[in-house]
Amino acid sequence: MARMTGTGLIFSKMHGAGNDFVVIDSRGCAERLTTPALAQALGDRHRGVGFDQLAELRPADDADLLLEFWNADGSRAGACGNATRCVASMVMCQTGAKTLTIRTARGILYAEDRGGQIWVNMGAPVLDWQDIPLSQKCDIEHLPLPGDPVAVGMGNPHCVHFVADADAAPVATQGPVVEHDPLFPEATNVEFASLIAPDHLRLRVWERGTGITLACGSGACATAVAANLRDLTGRQVTITADGGTLMVDWRDDGVWLTGPVAHVFTATLAEGFGQ
After folding, report:
1. Which active-site residues does the annotation give?
2. What is the 3-state secondary structure (H, E, C) of 58-76?
């Protein structure tokens, strides 16, 4: 995946349903390689590589690996479902493993290869207002915000709006407003979803620290949970995002996520990039 050489940093570019990532493997290094400045430089789509999130692999004592996530603005991300699936797919291809345990800020996540489909258990949804977190006690299923959204935590906060037509939703204008609403002390991801069928949702996403993305794994999970809480869908939901289709299965042991995975290229940064 990625390592330091005499000439620069080797990294991989991957995407899951258009949700794209830079993947850095520093398991053989004494310290992590990513800094806020490097994440910002790499995340710049004009002067760097460009990504929605950066995922860095680190060694873990209690799991097969540790994953740390960074946003394109240089901030840290607590969870990233599609990046977790991408990394799981790459490591499984390298090792031949069919299952993996992955330590994240969210806790230990489990990945499985089911006939070539990589599923990741993103854990149980967080439904307590203090833990999402919100800045004040309120009904998470009916937040006191325009559009009557739902709050769900998936290792990061989400604010899910159900609208008549997600394609017409004001993602670019409302997304950044809701992201920084005082109700969310750590800011939030913002979803706009419309019901296609009792087991199918159309989703568009504004990601915290990044902006509009073609898909969002944790956002798909949060939206499926919110739709079930609102009695719009069952617990098995197909989610059509801008970049492709994801599937979510909310089971007793957690919210499972799958969808397409692609390795785009592996490359080396020029020596001194980002310094």
Report:
1. 80, 216
2. ECCCCCCEEEEEEECCCCE
Sequence letter at residue 52: D
pLDDT digit string, tens, across residues 202-237: 999 999 999 999 999 999 999 999 999 999 999 999
* Domains in the chain: boundaries: 3-122+260-268, 150-252
Q: Does residue 30 have a pLDDT over 90?
A: no
Q: Name residues whose C-beta falls within 8 Å of residue 25's C-beta, 6 or more positions apart in sequence.
A: 1, 2, 3, 56, 57
Superfamily of domain 3-122+260-268: Diaminopimelate Epimerase; Chain A, domain 1 (3.10.310.10)
CATH topology of domain 150-252: Diaminopimelate Epimerase; Chain A, domain 1 (3.10.310)
Query: Could you read off the pLDDT of 134-158 as tens digits, one per residue?
Result: 999 999 999 999 999 999 999 999 9
pLDDT at 5 over 50: no
Bond preceding residue 133 cis, omega within 30 of 0: yes
**Is 3-122+260-268's fold the same as 150-252's?**
yes
Q: How many residues does the chain have?
A: 275
User: In sequence order, what are the beta bridge partners of 161?
Assistant: 192
